[in-house]
Amino acid sequence: MGEGLLTKEECESCDFGDNVNYIDYEKIYFARFDILRKAYERSNIRENQEFVQFKEENSFWLDDYALYMAVKNKFDGRAWTEWDMDIRMREPKAMRAYKEELKDEITFYEFQQYMFKKQWMNLKNYANERGIKIIGDIPIYVAFDGADAWANPKLFQFDENCQPVAVAGCPPDAFSETGQLWGNPLYDWEYHKRTGYKWWVQRVSYCFQLYDVVRIDHFRGFDEYYSIPFGEDTAVNGKWMPGPGYDLFKKLNSKLGDMDIIAEDLGFLTDTVLELLEKCGYPGMKILQFAFDSREDSDYLPHNYPKNCIVYTGTHDNDTVRGWYDVIPDADKEFAAEYMNNHGAEEEQIHWDFIRLAMASVADTCIIPLQDYLGLGSEARINIPSTLGCNWKWRMNKDDITDEIVEKIKHLTKLYARIPVKKEEE
Q1: Catalytically annotated residue among 64, 86, 212, 217
Q2: Is residue 422 very low, low, confident or very high in pLDDT (cuts 50, 70, 90)?
Q3: Stretch 173-179: mean pLDDT, rounded?
Q4: Which of 13, 28, 127, 214 fits 132 for a cystine, CB–CB 3.0-4.6 Å?
Q5: How far apart are CA 398 and CA 100, in angstroms?
Q6: Which strands form 284-287's sheet, in the order they lie side by side?
Q7: CA nearest 68: which of 141, 152, 140, 139?
Q8: Bridge-partner residues for 310, per DSSP?
Q9: Which string of DSSP letters, residue by residue, matches 190-225?
């Protein structure tokens, strides 16, 4: 819905990049604040009662976030651990002074969040009215250089100077000799328990305002998390520590009721993780690309699925089906052909064989990335884990989905009863 705050010419004058297939985040970052500032200055937002109500309802996170962003800009974007000591440690006198000095900048960030929430809810309602649910992802961890860590240091394993005692990551495995050093601050789970998991209840509750279904990333970390001493260069010297387990989810259920949650349970799973997943009752994830290793049987092969799971051809962290299939060993291709009984199939159409396999499985929910419906290769891959600079850039051209593809999707979803089939009226 147009707000009348910007002209079409002003929007089109911004350089957001000219490649319709790839997002230029650098250009967007440097162009967006000028245009947002114009909209803010014309908005008379302080007199808007909806905005006032939004601030009141979201003060539990918005106040700290907006102040954090305003102060971060004052310090030229530096991490909060490099700010002056008084505001870094949130001394009351400094907090009052910065709130007064930066009140316009603070309101600017509150305005952005208000406009985002308003426009997002319009989009969500539009989708819901058409029978479409939106799945949102919630990472288990937050960034160290973020408002949560600055505003709520007691939530994390920090020392008296607000430096991490230990950070998150993954241990060495077959894919990485030194493991993965993520660097996120780890939670002080004992403190969270003493507060009745208040921060988690607020966080998850807000997610369900934005999304219909929430996918919880790195579900294993709630059973056990990998702790790496702060300052280490690799993840080699980390150790597994107990997480909150079912106690957290029991509290979430008591406060929020039944929640539509997907548990990201990929990778090596211990018996205790599987027990936690079963106790919670959340569906786990099955990835077809993980299934076709000719050397061994796999839980990711469809004949091993329970009904309570979500099947994907691949996720944002995988290559597309076409890109993946192009590089797997011939033995794995032969195994896939034998499994699907499609010897001699055209490789240009192989993505449809995997889509059909996912659709035909007993999994309660089937999710197919658009890139696989379009039959695109590695050029359309979304993310390569543990890399920086070239991820999350692909986007679909509005003309990519043809009537032929739509009809094929419709046919398969009806064939495998993935959508209700209306009976012909007598």
Answers
A1: 217
A2: low
A3: 80
A4: 127
A5: 46
A6: 284-287, 309-312, 365-367
A7: 152
A8: 285, 365
A9: HHHHHTTTHHHHHHHHHHHHH-SEEEES-GGGGTEE
Banded pLDDT at 1 (limits 50, 70, 90): very low
Supply the pLDDT for residue 346.
78
pLDDT, the chain, mean: 94
* Residues near 375 by beta carbon (within 8 Å), at least 6 away in sequence: 322, 348, 349, 351, 352
The C-alpha atoms of residue 341 and residue 336 are separated, in whole angstroms, by 8
First-residue to last-residue Cα distance in the chain: 42
pLDDT tens per residue across span 34-89: 999 999 999 999 989 999 999 999 999 999 999 999 999 999 999 999 999 999 99
Active site residue 233: no
Q: What residues form DSSP beta bridges with 137?
A: 215
Question: Out of 148, 264, 265, 319, which one is annotated catalytic?
Answer: 264
Known catalytic membership, residue 264: yes
Active site residue 317: yes
What CA–CA distance (Å, rounded) separates 213 from 367? 13
> What is the CB neighbour count within 10 angstroms for residue 87?
20
The residue from 317, 326, 332, 400 that is catalytic is 317
Whether this prediction's pTM lies above 0.90 is answered by yes
- Bridge partners (DSSP) listed for residue 251: none
Instruction: Tell me which residue of 142, 161, 154 sits closest to 192, measured CA to CA.
Output: 154
